[in-house]
Amino acid sequence: MAALIIIFAVYNTFVYTQGTSNTTPKMTALAIEGEKLYQTNNCTACHQLFGLGGYLGPDLTNIISAKNKGSFYVKAFLNSGIKSMPKFNFTEKEQDALVQFLTEVDQCGYYPIYDATIKSTGWVDVKYKNQKVNNND
């Protein structure tokens, strides 16, 4: 039992003291405004980002880069609403802020992630958008 506790302690020390090469993404002021609108209008009740949120509406993680979608598509739904999505009557500036927020979310990753590798250390390597290739691995 003592050996298991020691292994557990060593493993946790190793895992939780390792640094990460990922840095926190920096959002523009307009995107932060859009994020606030997303939160105050409770968009998460119906929509997901990276699979987290409600299931009434679609996942919006990659809506900007999705084929036949994009900023005009998003603005059209914000302007008109559809079925269970209400018409919000956002101003042009608010629409631009929401689109910028979704654009910056779109740029930071893929969802769902199909190309991932689990390392022996327990960390998961995933392919990020706009990631520079490191040939030293």
How does this structure look, described?
With 137 residues, this protein is mostly helical. It has one domain: Cytochrome Bc1 Complex, Chain D, domain 2. Helices cover 39% and strands 7% of the residues. It has a two-stranded antiparallel ribbon with strand order 1-2. The chain has a two-stranded antiparallel ribbon with strand order 3-4. Helix 2 packs across helix 4. The radius of gyration is 19 Å and the shape is elongated.
User: How would you classify the quaternary structure?
Assistant: single chain
Helical content stands at 25-40%
Tell me the number of strands: 4
User: Which fold does the CATH topology refer to?
Assistant: Cytochrome Bc1 Complex, Chain D, domain 2
Task: State mean pLDDT (0 to 100 scale).
Answer: 87
Q: Any idea how many domains? A: 1
DSSP helical segment count = 4
Short description, anyone?
With about 140 residues, the chain is mainly alpha-helical. The chain has a single domain (about 25-125), classed as Orthogonal Bundle (Cytochrome Bc1 Complex, Chain D, domain 2), CATH 1.10.760.10.
